[in-house]
């Protein structure tokens, strides 16, 4: 199974959302992470121009959104439902942080439909909705200020979902460190140059060379960088030799 | 050092932000995760009522925000600067996903100031700004739609920062599974009740009891749940005994 397909088995269900702008912002957040199945239970206003505006081009998600009258309809066919909960409830299902909850969801989403259920902006899930979830998810946050907005919560969960689906590569080229023998030739060149220009004492170069080794070890030099540094050393040697010739 | 103090060593630097609403939303995102040091380089409009409105009560962050004219001023004293970059650049520093970049930042933030640098909404960091960062951070995202808004990016990085600081506990009460001997007494009670009511054959109860064991093993029963189930079994036995008496 393609990992992007796994994300197609994940429904984001928003219950009784008050502000259409939040629906649009949630769609945008989903799309950035490769989620596409948005389900709305009795949204106050939808479709709405504010939703379109806040979706910033994720209008395809809004157009394909399923609008439902009931929770039953929204969750039909799902085998695992994780509900977002900011409140501490007297009796509740297992409460997990996002990363752990998403690991469970992803495992099921390989073959079946799962849902992330979000309550209203003001009061979150009702007790009846929370009771329908197998797990509740609580985002770790500042105990004195836990006011994440709806789209921000959708963004965080969608991000964790993308990472759990194995799509967390940020596409950056990996560093290509040069082989050790190239690095050694640089240090030889550096040492001889520093002796030539009189910065190093030919008899005791060890300590300073060790410090330079420490610096460049941390940088893990690439071949091109070695070429640049050796180019500078070569020009320094030539400049010094010429200067020496002139002053003689 | 207190872990919340570590977050005080992390500056969120927003460069040349166009929309004051985004500054407010970024402040809100920071505060939910316990970050507080906001630095603004030449914001287009600030302070601004839109920033206050979008901060949803995180106005303390806005009031304490430092407004600077230059990048030098904003980064003064920082020992590590991580810049957000959505673009692939020809030549660039090491590019890391958020989790890895934040691990580096947190390590330094134990003792010194570090910065997360965000560019403008439209075009991100300039090449000059990117060159001033020791690492670039790229959020993994849908290759066909990577349009995270500024506050969403601040939210994700602040969340990863909170987790890396060891403040990722979501405050949920841990499950308290009952000791095995209590679970065994439940199974004995269950088996005898199911035999009494005629659901189980006294001679071959094994297979079904194994299936019930499997179910309840997965649930990891707590003591109170065992009490409830045994209460139901006791009432079932009594009901069956009475019914049996009446029908005789």
UniProtKB/TrEMBL annotation, chains A, B:
Give the highest taxon in the source lineage: Bacteria
Alphabetically sorted, this entry's keywords are: Cytoplasm, Methyltransferase, S-adenosyl-L-methionine, Transferase, tRNA processing
- GO MF, any single term: RNA binding
Q: Which residues does the UniProt record annotate as the domain tRNA/rRNA methyltransferase SpoU type?
A: 10-159
> Which reaction is this enzyme known to catalyze?
cytidine(32) in tRNA + S-adenosyl-L-methionine = 2'-O-methylcytidine(32) in tRNA + S-adenosyl-L-homocysteine + H(+); uridine(32) in tRNA + S-adenosyl-L-methionine = 2'-O-methyluridine(32) in tRNA + S-adenosyl-L-homocysteine + H(+)
Query: Is the keyword Transferase in the record?
Result: yes
Q: Cellular component per GO?
A: cytosol
Q: Does the keyword Membrane apply?
A: no
Q: By its UniProt entry, which InterPro entries does this protein fall under? A: Alpha/beta_knot_MTases, RNA_MeTrfase_TrmJ/LasT, SpoU_MeTrfase, tRNA_m1G_MTases_N
Its annotated compartments are:
Cytoplasm
The secretion signal range is: none
Entry EC number(s): 2.1.1.200
Q: GO terms for biological process?
A: tRNA nucleoside ribose methylation
Q: Which PANTHER family match?
A: TRNA (CYTIDINE_URIDINE-2'-O-)-METHYLTRANSFERASE TRMJ, TRNA/RRNA METHYLTRANSFERASE
Q: What does this protein do?
A: Catalyzes the formation of 2'O-methylated cytidine (Cm32) or 2'O-methylated uridine (Um32) at position 32 in tRNA.
Give the record's family classification. Answer: Belongs to the class IV-like SAM-binding methyltransferase superfamily. RNA methyltransferase TrmH family.
The annotated subunit structure for this chain is: Homodimer.
Under what name is this protein listed? Answer: tRNA (cytidine/uridine-2'-O-)-methyltransferase TrmJ
Species of provenance: Ferriphaselus amnicola
Taxonomic classification, please? Answer: Bacteria, Pseudomonadati, Pseudomonadota, Betaproteobacteria, Nitrosomonadales
């Amino acid at each position: 199974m393609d990992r992007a397909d796994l994300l197609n088995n994940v429904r984001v269900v928003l219950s009784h959302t008050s502000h259409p702008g939040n629906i649009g912002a949630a769609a945008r957040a989903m799309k950035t992470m490769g989620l596409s199945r948005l389900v709305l239970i009795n949204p106050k206003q939808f479709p709405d121009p504010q939703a379109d505006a806040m979706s910033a081009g994720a209008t395809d998600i809004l157009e394909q959104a399923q609008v439902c009258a009931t929770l039953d309809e929204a969750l039909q066919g799902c085998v695992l439902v994780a509900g977002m909960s900011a409140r501490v409830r007297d009796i509740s299902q297992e409460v997990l942080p996002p990363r752990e909850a998403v690991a469970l969801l992803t495992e099921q989403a390989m073959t079946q439909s799962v849902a992330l259920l979000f309550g209203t902006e003001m009061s979150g899930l009702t007790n009846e909705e929370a009771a329908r979830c197998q797990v509740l998810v609580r985002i770790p946050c500042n105990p004195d200020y836990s006011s994440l907005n709806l789209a921000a919560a959708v963004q965080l969960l969608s991000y964790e979902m993308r990472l759990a689906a194995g799509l967390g590569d940020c596409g950056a080229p990996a560093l290509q460190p040069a082989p050790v023998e190239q690095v050694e030739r640089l240090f030889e060149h550096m040492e001889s140059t520093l002796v030539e220009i009189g910065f190093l004492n030919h008899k005791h170069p060890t300590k300073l060379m060790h410090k330079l080794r420490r610096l460049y070890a941390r940088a893990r030099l690439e071949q091109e960088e070695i070429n640049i540094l050796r180019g500078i050393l070569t020009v320094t040697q030539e400049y010094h030799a010429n200067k020496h010739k002139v002053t003689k």
